[in-house]
Design goal:
Rossmann fold; 4-stranded parallel β-sheet; 15% strand; binds 1,3-dihydroxyacetonephosphate; binds iron/sulfur cluster
């Protein structure tokens, strides 16, 4: 995945990061959307937002470096209040997390009294603090159904909300947020790609509804990886952030990946250079204000409890 001349540039940074990790007793968590030199070069744990939250909860390292975006680093901090959590670029945000604020959730509760609120993990800690439980795209249906309510408020992603609604009898009251990256995929392009290449099409549930309908499989980033491993198509089109195809292609050289590239500019703020720098300086650290932390932590822990893997699984 990494051409020789680029590798020569990356190699000294990777060596420095390995040394700093040992000195700081640090681990690096990398989301599936990180570039291959981070994902395969320095990460100790790799995965979707749910598995990174689980890894963060089980860690005994003194320092956690989140190669992802702010809400992922906040989740790690909520689960590890006494450890240092670093986000290599403090500006790495998320358009979904920006789509709703705590006041919006309070207003939804006022309009729908007694209805539980499920928030996507792609939200700020301030929003999580207003919710009953959070979820990721890997467990959204399970979480919604576990509440035993005839209706739930589901924020902020409108497309994930519709994905959930299509798989449950629970009434889903949604919000108008969307991801700026997945919004760019168009159903007409997918139909054309498939007609020309016969590729197996996998979409993230943050894609618009018509894109999901045009796909062969819809699921979280970990769901897509599992589906590819099980099905082993000759060629595949992943309708999600660009780097994921690079990372999965390294593991499945037998699959040809088509790459209509949509980058998440927030994920791409993380680089080997700023990972090294943050480990040197122990900065920028992510903190969650004390008035939000206990309630936000409760929403994350409830999700982990409701979806705990069975013993021995
Ligand atoms: P996953 O939970 O599927 O990893 O997705 C996170 C995300 O931000 C997708 O855009
Ligand atoms: Fe947020 Fe979209 Fe980037 Fe995922 S891809 S981190 S939802 S902006």
């Amino acid at each position: 995945m990494i051409p020789e001349p680029e590798w020569l540039l990356f190699e000294p940074l990777i060596a420095d990061i390995a040394r700093l990790k040992a000195e700081r007793n640090a681990i690096i968590l990398a989301h599936n959307y990180q570039t291959p030199e981070i994902f395969h070069g320095v990460a100790d744990f790799r995965g979707d937002s749910l598995s990174l939250a689980r890894e963060a909860a089980g860690s005994d390292a003194e320092v956690l470096v989140m190669c992802g975006v702010r809400f992922m680093a906040e989740t790690a901090k909520l689960l590890n209040p006494d450890r240092i959590v670093l986000l290599p670029d403090a500006r790495a945000g998320c358009s979904l997390a920006e789509a709703i604020g705590p006041q919006d959730v309070r207003e939804l509760r006022r309009r729908h009294p007694g209805v539980p609120v499920v928030c996507y993990v792609n939200t700020s800690a301030a929003v999580k603090a207003e919710c009953d439980v959070c979820c990721t795209s890997a467990n959204a249906v399970t979480i919604v159904e576990s509440l035993g309510s005839r209706s739930v408020i589901f924020v902020p992603d409108q497309y994930l909300a519709r994905f959930v609604a299509s798989r449950t009898k629970v009434e889903v009251i949604s919000w108008s947020g969307h991801c700026e990256v997945h919004q760019r995929f168009k159903a007409a392009d997918i139909v054309e790609y498939r007609a020309r290449t016969g590729a197996y099409v996998l979409a993230h549930p943050e894609c618009p509804e018509d894109v999901q309908l045009a796909a062969d499989y819809v699921g979280s980033t970990s769901g897509m990886i599992a589906e590819l491993a099980a099905r082993r198509p000759g060629s595949a089109l992943l309708l999600t952030e660009c780097s994921m195809s690079d990372n999965v292609a390294a593991v499945h050289p037998e699959i040809t990946f088509l790459r209509p590239c949509n980058l998440c500019e927030h994920m791409k703020r993380i680089t080997l250079a700023n990972i090294r720098e943050c480990l040197q300086r122990l900065d920028p650290q992510v903190e969650v204000p004390e008035e939000q932390a206990p309630r936000a932590r409760r929403a994350v822990l409830r999700m982990l409890e409701l979806t705990a893997p069975a013993a021995g699984a």
